[in-house]
Design brief:
The protein is an alpha+beta fold and 83 residues long. Helix content is 22%, strand content 18%.
C-alpha cells in the first residue's frame, strides 16, 4: 500500500533537510519553496530508504529523475524485503 503525503508549506521538506536552496521558485506561481526530488520508503514510522534525484547541474532532478521514479523505488522495496 502506498501513501502519498502533501507538504504544501514545506514543513516536512525543511525538517528532512530536503530544501533545494540553489533554485528559487517563481513567485508568480505562488510557490513557497522548492524541494529536491526525493522519495522515501517509510515503514511503521521508520525511514527505510531515501532516494534523491539531485546533482549540482540538475538541482531539481528534472533531467535524470531515475533514482526517484517508481521503477527504482520498487527495486528498493524488493531489496528491503530480501534483507
Amino acid at each position: 500500500m502506498l501513501t502519498f503525503i502533501a507538504d504544501p508549506f514545506g514543513n516536512l521538506t525543511k525538517g528532512l533537510k530536503m530544501e533545494n536552496l540553489s533554485s528559487k521558485p517563481p513567485d508568480l506561481f505562488g510557490l513557497i519553496g522548492r524541494s529536491k526530488r526525493f522519495a522515501m520508503v517509510v515503514k511503521d514510522g521508520q525511514i527505510e530508504s531515501t532516494q534523491i534525484s539531485y546533482t549540482e547541474i540538475d538541482p531539481l532532478g528534472a533531467y535524470d529523475p531515475s533514482a526517484t521514479c517508481i521503477k527504482n523505488i520498487l527495486k528498493v522495496c524488493n531489496t528491503l524485503k530480501a534483507t
